[in-house]
Design a protein that fits this description.
2 helices; homodimer; 3 strands; three-stranded antiparallel β-sheet; Mth169, Chain: A; alpha+beta; 80 residues
Chain lengths: 80, 80
């Protein structure tokens, strides 16, 4: 059993209003040291697989089929 | 300059319909090996600070003030 994190973010050039607004709000609250904020979606899942390679392969399939929209999203897969 | 990831999740006992629905959809699509899905929010930010300790302190303040609702959310801070 593996614990996998899938981070789904926006591709470069796709606007990220949530990140931009969070940044603006942080600045208004006095956190001027924050230089950039990006907003991402994180899925943390438990998955049964024989190996890490097999798990990555299956998670990539999940990303293609349902977790991301490849037109606008990028994704990163990490093991905990 | 540090790159910090803030992972905002739901406390134990708080229902996570997005995670549950993602899990259900994955099962319906044939990914029966997935045993649990949790949905979290991820903020990736660049922050200027003199030290990691100082950065953590400031990010904790941001979490208290705007990034999380401490009644229902937990958060994790990680450096990239």
């Amino acid at each position: 059993m593996f614990t996998v994190e899938v981070k789904v973010g926006l591709k470069k050039g796709v606007s990220d209003p949530e990140g931009a607004n969070t940044h603006k709000s942080l600045e208004l609250l006095g956190f001027g040291e924050v230089k950039e904020v990006k907003s991402l979606k994180l899925y943390r899942m438990h998955i049964e697989a024989d190996s890490k390679e097999e798990a990555v392969k299956r998670v990539e399939e999940m990303c293609m089929k349902i977790l991301t929209n490849p037109v606008i999203h990028t994704h990163e897969i990490e093991f905990l």
